[in-house]
Amino acid sequence: MKTYNKTLIKDLPKVLCILGLLIFIMIHPEAATNGIKNGISLLLTIIIPSLFPFLVLSSFIASSKSFYILSGIFGPLTTRIFKINKNGFIPILMGLTGGYPIGAKVTADLYKANRLTKNEAERLMLFTVNSGPAFALTAVGTNMLSNTLAGVILYISTILTSLTIGFLCRFLSDKKELETNNTVTPEKTENVFINSVASGANAIINISAWVLTFSCLSEIIFTFNFGEKTSLFLNAIMEVSNGCKVCSGTVSLPLISAILGFGSFSVICQVSPYLKACNVKMKHFFVSRILNASLSAFFTFNLLKFFPEAVNTSVVLHVNNQPLNLSYTVNSSVILLIMCLIFILQVDNRKKIC
């Protein structure tokens, strides 16, 4: 009985929140409806066209002879720079070209196939969840910001951030596991293609469900009138596509880059099944997202110095007619270095992430 009461008390806040949300949707169904409509629009115009081909392609590459060819050519670089066996090149490549959550999906697939060690999979999860060129360049840069150069800067910042975190993670490697490289005979091409399409379809359904859920929640948030700053912040961290759309033309380009770097709670939920498959603790992944957001903003701010043509996108947010200073200073750089140290020091003496 005592155990039941403890469980009830522990779960009571969650139940009350769910009931409160249910009651609100019943009273204001138009908010939920508009959120779902916005989510469907994002899925049809941005997410599915840009992600589904890469989801199928990544599964195909990971299971076909292409995997061995690419890993053989570029794998030595992966080992030298990131201290990950040559099989790690594919999730790094797909994470930088396909967008979230493709890098995490490929990492989980390779780990299940015993092509990556536990330590390698854990580290890859921390820097292969990135915004792809289709989203950063076309969706955000060209369509939302009306500035293709700004999109280029955002994507370059994404690459630099991912490689920086990946390099830092090399210090968490397990030297005993580095030489592990289990070879698996590739399947026949026709079987690989069929399985890849099915895998891509399952993944896109999971992604779509989370996008719709958080798009609905984002629309509900707007009805509470929390204030401009709070509403922008909540939308930015809840769903990255809608967050970038709402913040475009309102906040500076480094902050847009930070939104892309963090990825939103929607992306975190999309990645969570793959984190679980690789036994990665959520708190470590969350810390890596904060570090990712900070470094992305840092790189974008400095790249703007070399590409002043994109500065017209980097505006200052005004709230209640009062300018909000969004510039980054030397102090920010120091804070970033401290965050990197904290990230590394979280690891135990055995240098294992989890």
Structural account:
With 354 residues, the chain is an all-alpha fold. It has 15 helices and two strands. The chain has helices at residues 2-27, 29-63, 65-82, 89-97, 102-112, 118-127, 133-144, 148-169, 189-222, 228-238, 240-247, 253-262, 264-277, 282-306, 330-345; strands at residues 318-319, 322-323. Strands 1-2 form a two-stranded antiparallel ribbon. Helix 6 packs antiparallel against helix 8 (148-169) and helix 8 (148-169) packs across helix 14. It is globular and about 60 Å long. It starts with a helix and ends in a 9-residue tail after the last helix. Residues 313-331 and 347-351 have low confidence and may be disordered.
Helicity range: over 70%
Q: Tell me the β content.
A: under 5%
Report mean pLDDT, rounded to a whole number. Answer: 77
Taking the sheet with the most strands, its summary is: 2 strands, antiparallel
Quick one: how many beta strands?
A: 2
Unreliable segments of 5+ consecutive residues = 313-331, 347-351
- State the separation between the terminal residues, measured CA to CA: 34 Å
User: Helix- and strand-based class?
Assistant: mainly alpha
Taken in chain order, the helices and strands follow as: HHHHHHHHHHHHHHEEH
